[in-house]
Amino acid sequence: MVIFNQNVKFWEKGKKRDVIERRSGYAYNLLLRAGVPVFYDSKNRVTHSKVMVIDKYITIVGSTNWTYGALRKNHEASVMIKSRDIALAFEQKLKKIEKISAK
Prior knowledge:
Layout: H1 2-12, E1 19-21, H2 25-34, E2 38-40, E3 50-54, E4 58-62, H3 68-73, E5 78-82, H4 84-99
Parallel strand pairs: 1-2
Antiparallel strand pairs: 3-4, 4-5
């Protein structure tokens, strides 16, 4: 929830964020109230990876669900990569996913 709330704070400060989220009513309503665009996976495919690209330079990718339980209680694995090339590659992949997602 910490990263989720931080994403909303960035959006409120005017930094562009797009979110591809599972169909969570709570998350959807929270993001909608903050004005953050949310894109849902198509019914035929689920985006299981958790990816965040920050400032076109830092990429966080892994299995970790960004929830209190996962961050505090689970054994999870994610990595942070500092590379503009890697960030660009992930941004391009996320844009492809966004194009086939429902709004």
